[in-house]
Specification:
Elements lengths: L7 H6 L8 E6 L2 E11 L3 E2 L5 E16 L2 E8 L3 E4 L4 E17 L8 E2 L12 E2 L3
Parallel strand pairs: 1-9
Antiparallel strand pairs: 1-2, 2-7, 3-8, 4-5, 4-6, 4-7
Length: 131
């Protein structure tokens, strides 16, 4: 990790992989990750942590399976949303998006429980930015 300022646009321009987050910095025991996304992720659950999303560009949909049924939230550029721990969810971006996520270091992108992971989704705890 660098202790120099980092332009998020430059960080996003440094890779092309979809659904494969890059760690841009750490805050205490948390990763700040950026990702390019398009299409569907996978239904998954993080049992022990919330998951924070900030849409940097484009539009992100997050489907949620909650106690009272299923719903989808729509996040446009600049919008933030936190998926509560233990909530089954599936992000998707029909037209593509760039997102920032904030979650504990070591958190797997496909959660603790998930559907079968499709080939286009990277099951990772995040990659170094320049890898």
């Amino acid at each position: 990790m660098s202790n120099e300022p980092l332009a998020l646009g430059e960080a996003l321009a440094s890779f092309d992989a979809l659904w494969s987050p890059r760690i841009v910095t750490r805050v205490n025991d948390y990763d700040v990750r950026v990702a390019k996304v398009e299409g569907e992720h996978v239904w998954h659950v993080h049992d022990g942590t919330d998951e924070f999303f900030l849409v940097l560009d484009g539009e992100l949909h997050i489907s949620l399976r909650e106690h009272d049924g299923e719903r989808t939230v729509l996040l446009s550029q600049g919008a933030v949303f936190t998926v509560p721990r233990g909530t089954e969810h599936k992000p998707y971006a029909p037209s593509g998006a760039a997102i920032l996520m904030f979650e504990p270091t070591g958190t797997l992108t496909v959660g603790d429980r998930h559907d079968e992971v499709p080939d286009h989704v990277d099951s990772t705890t995040g990659h170094p930015l320049n890898a």
